[in-house]
Amino acid sequence: MSQKPLTYADAGVSIDAGNALVRAIGPLARSTARPGADAELGGFGGFFDLKAAGYSDPLLVAANDGVGTKLKLAIEIGRHDGVGIDLVAMCANDLIVQGAEPLFFLDYYATGKLEPAVASAVVASIAEGCRRAGCALIGGETAEHPGLLEPEEYDVAGAATGVVEADLLLGADRVRDGDVLVAMAASGLHSNGYSLVRHVLLERAGWALDRDIAELGRSLGDELLEPTRIYARDCLALIDAADVHAFSHITGGGLANNLARVLPRHLSATVDRATWSPPPIFGIVAEVGDVARNDLEGTLNMGVGMVAVVAASDADRTVTLLADRGVPSWIAGSVHSSTDDSRQVTLIGAHP
Fold first, then answer.
1. Own/partner pairs, 221-225, CB within 8 angstroms, 24+ separation
2. pLDDT per residue over 186-242, tens digit each?
3. Which of 23, 208, 215, 296 is most enclosed, with most CB atoms within 10 A?
């Protein structure tokens, strides 16, 4: 007896489901349209018109990233409305460090079995992230990998492109002795250090994600899935209004390691812990896991998501401007000359 001919669907991949998803997410992409891009999906590539965006001597800046271990928590809880914001944030926040305006975004969604409701929720959150960053979602790719991922598993990655006028490029070359460090509050853990957090709270302590934590005022899962703050529009507004020399996006490696990346070799920086109180989740991880301060500060953002390096004369103005935009910030330290080329960042004092 001859066997029934196999189809792609029999192997676990549905072309029809993929096409249906593209039709469903079309309006989400169109909601992110901006000058230079109409954000229409369906072609083999996305277009962006730099002239329409108003640039004359543009430098393109590109960044790509994923969400990492935080994604596993979203899958376990079955809540997908924040992962796309995290994905866009990790890319857009890296672009603004160079002073680049995020222009457009491309995503990649891979899953063991395409579930339209889950995929649509993820793409909807990506579109929301793009709206917050001011960039257009101009394309992406969806793939089913039944032999690589379990049916309920998925992974996401993204790439963003931004632009800055050549004479406005920010970075270490602009940083000067006497500059002031203005720290901007994180919305939580953001998207870094979750391997440590999961190991401490879920594996070692055995806490459930639906456990209510009094110090947090909500469940552990809600705290851990808080989306990453997107600073792009706030930083662009700051560039227009103050003498900004550099930004540092505080991700994996913590405050000292990331801040050192935007210092020239002849300068160092000092950050005073006494200028802010980290949100309770950081203390909980430290206490429950008996995590040493150096390990904690070298892994997590400790409540600081972005640092602006500004001229001392504009430090107070920077804090005021950010407050007006709803971004809590404070003067956390300063830049000073160094006796060597180590670009050392020293954290002093203790948190209140």
1. 221/73, 221/77, 221/79, 223/188, 223/189, 223/281, 224/70, 224/73, 224/188, 224/189, 224/194, 224/197, 224/281, 225/70, 225/73, 225/74, 225/77, 225/79, 225/82
2. 999 999 999 999 999 999 999 999 999 999 999 999 999 999 999 999 999 999 999
3. 296
